Amino acid sequence: MFTIMDDGIALQAELDMPEKAEGKMPVAVLMHGFTGYKEEWHILAVSKALTEAGYAVLRADMFGHGKSGGEFRNHTLFKWMGNAMTLIDYARNLDFASEIYICGHSQGGLTAMLAAALKRDQISGMIALSPAWMIPELARKGNLLGLDFDPVHIPDELPAWNNNVLDGNYVRAAQTIHVEEYIDRYDGPVLIVHGDNDGAVPVEYGIKAAERYQNSKLVVIPGDDHCYAFHLDQVVKAVKDWAVEQKKARAGA
Ligand code: FER
Questions:
Q1: Residue 196 counted as domain residue
Q2: N or C, which end of the chain is more exposed by having fewer CB within 10 Å?
Q3: In CATH, what number is assigned to the domain containing residue 85?
Q4: Contact 169, 158 (CB under 8 A)
């Protein structure tokens, strides 16, 4: 583990290298979801899929999560967007980096979608795993974490999972994000993977995202849930196949 500083916040990260790491190679930045961390089994499995396809993977704990700095209650999508840009810049500056890819699960998948748009000239491809596109919509409606609240007079804090508390500023930041605008700003290749029995992020959001992206592939995993408890092998295959395809497309280009 090593530290990447993001304007005073210490982000803890790991760099997973392919077995035969020689010369330049693509680097994929990989982000976990809400209350997640970089050693979750689906994150490790996706990292392995990418390293087997010849990509280096920069796996990080995001603001307020895992071993990184910042309090959980103070995290917002804005802070994660800033983290994602910092991680992308770190990856770009690795001396072995060729192309940069951005990947994430759930809230990290949403962050990948946002970051791909923010840094569209620097991102060669994006993978969104069960992307939590609905967070900004639900923040505007006043229903997050299964909890109803007044979306105009936002409470100072929301009770979150596992005895966590989330500051109302999370809601304020999320309300201003219109995901469609970000989708439309990114025309690079996109892979979306989503289980069709996801109780946290309905599969319709993955489908809707894949339909809207100009250059996307959608893999729906039948019967799987939010963290792929049943068919992680199918997720791994989808990611690896797509990553290898991208490599071939780049070689042919
Ligand atoms: C919510 C449902 C899902 C929510 C966040 C998520 C903040 C994110 C899930 C994940 O990242 O795994 O209502 O509210």
A1: yes
A2: C
A3: 3.40.50.1820
A4: no
Q: Does 158 map to a domain?
A: no
Confidence tier at 51 by pLDDT (50, 70, 90): very high
Asked whether residue 174 is domain-assigned, the answer is: no
Question: Residue 160 in contact with residue 145, Cβ under 8 Å?
Answer: yes
Atom 9 in ligand 1: which residue has the minimum CA distance? Answer: 34
Ligand 1 environment, Cβ below 6 A: 33-34, 106-107, 132, 135, 138, 144-145, 200-201
Helix (H, G, I), strand (E, B) or coil at 211: helix
Give 144 Cα–ligand 1 centroid separation in angstroms.
Answer: 7
- Tell me, yes or no, whether 97 lies in a domain: yes
The predicted structure's pLDDT at residue 252: 87
Give the domain extent around 13. Answer: 2-134+179-252
Of all residues in the chain, what percent carry a pLDDT higher than 70? 100
Distance 34 CA to ligand 1 centre (A): 6
Q: Which of 106, 48, 143 is nearest to 225 (CA)?
A: 106
Residue 125's closest CA among 109, 92, 102, 104?
Answer: 102
In the chain, the number of structural domains is: 1
**Predicted model pTM:** 0.98
